[in-house]
């Protein structure tokens, strides 16, 4: 059946043409949900037509309203408030809509559109396990892939793993120096945590080495030689740390040597690198599995870090880049509000933007997508602005399809986390904590009685993971947020479990329908739709539009907020209207059909967020 918003847009456009002789694009007719404090289902904004109508807004609205009521059978009544035309839709339309919704297995999804999009997300470093910040990245990326697939795209889910460089060498040096041959298996530690512990240990040992060096004759000699007048020794050594690491530190020298050996393809170094990275990947895979996430394509920086130099040469030929006297290559973006950016160092080595340009070009040749979405924290906003502008100036054919899905930092109530200091909350620990809280609260409510241990654990997993995912996704990506594990599993308020509880209620109803073999055919005889029922029908009707809006904006929070509003309306419906004890068989059947449709849409919408629905809570 036709979407009522499209019907109204076409009808208003026809009214303006016939009443005032002005052709109007139906797509530009503004139709919104009527605010709850006014009578109506949909409101038409009349102000754009006042000039052509040559009438006051209220008069034009009344004229158009009368035309619509006479020509559009779906409209039951209308009223005018301050230039807004509020329309009431007939019960017959809602009846027909409900029947078609229940019958459609893929309601809310669009046909395949033949277009391909890539979403890059997670993209971790191999020197530490995934943490809370990664969780927000992963959940945003995954939900975007599901939403884009729902509107018809073929989606390539990918990540580029930072598997090389100084950070990786720090973990390797630390394990060689202090590991005494220990392995994740020998210590009973999840393998990515094992490697991450050695990265943290390296930072601790560096601090100890630096503190000791400052009191040596060599350290004091440097202080005397290079200390600025009036500068406190503590301030000097704080500023001198990086130079010390590169020129005096024993551990720093070991890291530099390790990196050089890696770049020279030293067999022993490569074997160690592969072994420790293998430990990390094994741990990552387990965390991804717990989060319900998988990738279609993996890229590794060890394979891509030399890419981009050909693009630099092409850019020099096109005068997009320029070379300075020292031989370094730059791009001048000051006319676009940015600055000058180096793309190749004087020694011929690349910087991050060089390899990112090369990787973008390689992936377009390989994948041929129309859009490329990068899910990366807002700390990298400037980097992506410069990258995209550079690729546009180079005339890359895919440049207009690039998008940076920028998101704010996520913190705990205790504050910001720091990897080097070992204060980061690992993703696995956070998942375990949310499951623990969910189990504790469920036990207190006595909800796990009478079911098997396997079913209990499965339901707890779904509730806990639903709590974690929903709490993070409900916040607009660009906003910073604080994740509160206790608050996330609350059955009251804007949480995943609150929405899951609506589904569980509905599931219980439908099980009873099946058990008692209740005939729902009389639903079509129901004649007076109540306001609580209308609220649900309008929300269900909006679902495909919300999915499309979320896809266009790359904003899964729109879906999350829709789910919460729908669940809230259903709880009100449940409280205000009797279902099994309804006044008539038609009302009972209609409300059960409506409940079924709500359950289907809740499961579909939450599924786009990666949230599974439990059978019991």
Question: How would you summarize what this structure contains?
Answer:
The chain has helices at residues 4-20, 50-53, 57-71, 91-103, 132-150, 166-178, 184-187, 191-214, 217-226, 233-247, 250-263, 267-291, 301-304, 309-317, 352-367, 381-393, 427-445, 453-473, 485-488, 496-516, 531-553, 557-576, 585-608; strands at residues 31-33, 42-45, 75-81, 84-89, 116-120, 154-161, 297-300, 322-323, 329-332, 340-344, 371-377, 402-407, 410-411, 481-482. The chain is an alpha/beta fold. Strand 11, helix 16 and strand 12 (402-407) form a beta-alpha-beta unit.
Description:
With 617 residues, the protein is of the alpha/beta class. Among the domains are: 4-89, Gyrase A, domain 2 (2-Layer Sandwich); 165-264, no CATH class; 427-608, Isoleucyl-tRNA Synthetase, Domain 1 (Orthogonal Bundle). Helix content is 56%, strand content 11%. The protein has a five-stranded parallel beta sheet, sandwiched between helices. α16 (381-393) links the parallel β11 (371-377) and β12 (402-407).
């Amino acid at each position: 059946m036709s979407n009522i918003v499209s019907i109204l847009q076409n009808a208003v456009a026809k009214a303006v043409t016939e009443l005032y002789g002005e052709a109007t694009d139906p797509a530009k007719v503004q139709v919104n949900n009527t605010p709850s404090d006014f009578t109506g289902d949909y409101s038409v904004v009349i102000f754009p037509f006042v000039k052509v109508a040559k009438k006051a807004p209220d008069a034009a609205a009344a004229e158009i309203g009368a035309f619509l009521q006479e020509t559009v059978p779906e409209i039951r009544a209308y009223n005018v408030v301050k230039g807004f035309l509020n329309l009431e839709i007939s019960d017959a339309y809602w009846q027909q809509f409900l029947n078609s919704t229940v019958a459609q297995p893929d309601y809310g999804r669009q046909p395949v559109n033949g277009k391909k999009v890539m979403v890059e997300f997670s993209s971790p470093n191999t020197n530490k396990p995934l943490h809370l910040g990664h969780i927000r990245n992963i959940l945003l990326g995954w939900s975007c892939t599901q939403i884009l697939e729902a509107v018809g795209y073929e989606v390539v889910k990918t990540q580029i793993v930072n598997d090389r460089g100084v950070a990786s060498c720090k973990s390797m040096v630390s394990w060689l120096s202090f590991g005494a041959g220990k392995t994740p298996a020998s210590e009973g530690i999840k393998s990515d945590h094992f490697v991450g512990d050695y990265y943290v240990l390296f930072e601790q040992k560096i601090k100890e080495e630096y503190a000791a060096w400052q009191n040596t004759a060599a350290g004091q000699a440097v202080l005397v030689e290079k200390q600025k007048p009036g500068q406190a020794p503590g301030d000097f050594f704080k500023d001198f740390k990086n130079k010390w690491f590169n020129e005096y530190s024993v551990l720093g020298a070991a890291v530099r040597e390790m990196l050089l050996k890696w770049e020279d393809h030293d067999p022993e170094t490569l074997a160690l690198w592969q072994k420790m990275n293998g430990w990390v990947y094994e741990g990552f895979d387990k965390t991804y599995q717990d989060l319900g996430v998988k990738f279609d394509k993996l890229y590794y920086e060890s394979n891509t870090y030399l890419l981009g130099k050909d693009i630099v040469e092409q850019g020099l030929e096109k005068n997009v880049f320029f070379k300075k006297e020292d031989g370094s290559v730059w791009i001048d973006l000051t006319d676009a509000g940015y600055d000058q950016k180096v793309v190749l160092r004087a020694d011929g080595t690349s910087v991050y933007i060089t390899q990112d340009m090369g990787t973008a070009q390689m992936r377009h040749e390989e994948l041929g997508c129309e859009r490329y979405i990068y899910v990366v924290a807002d700390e990298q906003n400037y980097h992506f602005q410069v990258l995209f502008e550079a690729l546009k100036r180079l005339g890359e054919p895919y440049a207009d399809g690039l998008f940076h899905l920028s998101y704010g930092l996520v913190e705990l109530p205790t504050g910001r986390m720091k990897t080097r200091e070992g204060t980061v909350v690992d993703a696995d620990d956070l998942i375990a904590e949310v499951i623990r809280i969910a189990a504790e609260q469920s036990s207190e409510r006595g909800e796990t009685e009478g079911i098997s241990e396997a079913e209990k654990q499965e339901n707890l997993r779904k509730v806990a993971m639903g709590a974690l995912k929903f709490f993070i996704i409900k916040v607009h990506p660009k906003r910073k947020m604080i994740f509160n594990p206790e608050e996330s599993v609350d059955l009251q308020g804007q949480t995943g479990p609150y929405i899951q509880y609506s589904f569980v209620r509905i599931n219980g109803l439908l099980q009873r329908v099946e058990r008692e073999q209740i005939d729902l055919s009389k639903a079509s005889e129901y004649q007076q739709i109540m306001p609580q029922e209308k609220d649900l029908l309008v929300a269900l009707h909006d679902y495909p539009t919300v999915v499309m809006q979320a896809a266009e904006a790359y904003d899964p929070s729109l879906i999350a907020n829709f789910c919460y509003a729908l669940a809230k309306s259903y709880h009100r419906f449940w409280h205000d209207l009797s279902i099994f004890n309804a006044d008539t068989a038609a009302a009972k059947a209609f409300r059960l059909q409506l409940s079924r449709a709500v359950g289907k849409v809740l499961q579909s919408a939450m599924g786009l967020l990666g949230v599974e629905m439990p059978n019991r809570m």
